[in-house]
Amino acid sequence: MGRGDLSDAEWERLRPFLPVSNGRCGRWRNHRQVIDGILHRVRTGVQWRDLPERFGPWKTVYERHRLWSADGTRERLLQQVQAAADAAGEIDWDISVDSTIVRAHQHAAGARTDPPPAPAPAPAPAPAPGSKGAEEMEHQAETPWQSLVARLVEVVLEVRAWAARVAGSPASST
Predict the structure, then answer these.
(1) What is the mean pLDDT of residues 158-174?
(2) Which ranges carry the Insertion element IS402-like domain (predicted)?
């Protein structure tokens, strides 16, 4: 038994919930060996092909993991084991999560809190093609992102105005 493998007590608790072979596909490889292989891969992040040989053929471990994930066996197994442990009073469902456990992303610090800028004024009419002003206008053209942001600002302002009007109107019953 390697580090991180199922202990005998864990295996005995898990074994009754595992599916049995249907007999059509031949004999299944030892479930305990395969589950230990799946747990090893989840714990270490190693590629399937690099699983140690003590877990059996990597393709067997991969196929069993894929099959049990697809047909809901893994989810059913988790629910049954949790229900059994909960019935025995072995699960404490009270948890506490704070910022020392769940950290914000590094880019979350220093986010802007000021409102978005007001929409830009309408552009001046374009100069005649071929003139000096036309070349300058070409470089000052609004990018798609700028026009999208401007439109979003307009929509937000419209919604705020609508909400203010609705808040000021008397309630109506239907």
Answers:
(1) 70
(2) 6-77
Distance CA(1)–CA(33), nearest Å, equals 10
**Cα(63)–Cα(130) distance, integer angstroms:** 67
Q: How far apart are CA 111 and CA 113, in angstroms?
A: 6
Q: How far is CA 112 from the centre of its chain?
A: 25
Contact in structure between 35 and 6 (CB atoms under 8 Å): yes
Choose among 1, 3, 5, 35: nearest CA to 18. 35
pLDDT of residue 110: 65
Q: Which of 74, 76, 8, 14 is nearest to 38 (CA)?
A: 74
In this prediction the pTM is 0.50
d(CA 63, CA 96): 37
The per-residue pLDDT for range 97-131, each reduced to its tens digit, is 666 666 667 677 666 667 767 776 666 666 666 55
Within 10 Å of residue 11's Cβ, how many Cβ atoms?
16
Provide the sign of the torsion angle of the four alpha carbons 119, 124, 128, 130, taken in this order.
Answer: negative
Q: Where are the domains of the chain?
A: 8-87, 141-169
